[in-house]
Amino acid sequence: MREHQWIMSDKDDQDDDTSVMVQTRPKTKRPPLYKVLLLNDDYTPMEFVVHVLERFFGMTHAQAFEIMLTVHKKGVAVVGVFSHEIAETKVGQVMDFARRHQHPLQCTMEREE
Ligand code: TYC
Predict the structure, then answer these.
(1) Annotated region Disordered: where (predicted)?
(2) How far apart are CA 58 and CA 18, in angstroms?
(3) How many A from CA of 17 to the centre of ligand 1?
(4) Contact yes or no for 9/22 (Cβ under 8 A)
C-alpha cells in the first residue's frame, strides 16, 4: 500500500475554500534503523570483546569470536541493527561496561541509509 495515491474530488471537500486537497502517500513510513558499530583499538583484550558480544548482542561464542576478529583485522564491524532507542541502549551498555573494566573499547551508532 506504500505506492497508493489519491486526489479528493471537489464535492467531497467539506470546507468552502477552493484549495485542492492532495494526499500523495499514506502515512506508513517505517522508523529509521541504526547500525551499532564496534571499533578496533590496540589495548582491549580479545576475550573481553568476545564477552561483550555474547553478553549484549546475544551471540554464540563462535559468532562473537568471528566478529571480534573482523573488527581486529578491518578496524570496524556492524554488530547489530536496531531502533534508535535499542541502539542507544546497546551503545551505552558497551561503553559503560568497557569503562568500568578500564578498557578503551569504543562502540557507536549510525543511521542506516
Ligand atoms: N585489537 C585488539 C587486540 O589486539 C582486540 C580488539 C578487537 C579490540 C576488537 C577491540 O573492537 C575490538 N587486543
Answers:
(1) 1-21
(2) 58
(3) 65
(4) no
Run of H or E including 50 = helix 46-57
Element spanning 72, H or E: helix 61-74
Residues 42-111, CATH architecture: 2-Layer Sandwich (3.30)
Residue whose C-alpha cell is 474530488: 9
Q: Which residues line ligand 1 (CB under 6 A)?
A: 38-42, 44-46, 49, 68, 71-72, 105
Task: Tell me the three state secondary structure of residue 43.
Answer: coil
Q: Mind listing the pLDDT tens digit for each residue in 62-99?
A: 999 999 999 999 999 999 999 999 999 999 999 999 99
- Convert the pLDDT of each residue in 39-67 to its tens digit: 999 999 999 999 999 999 999 999 999 99
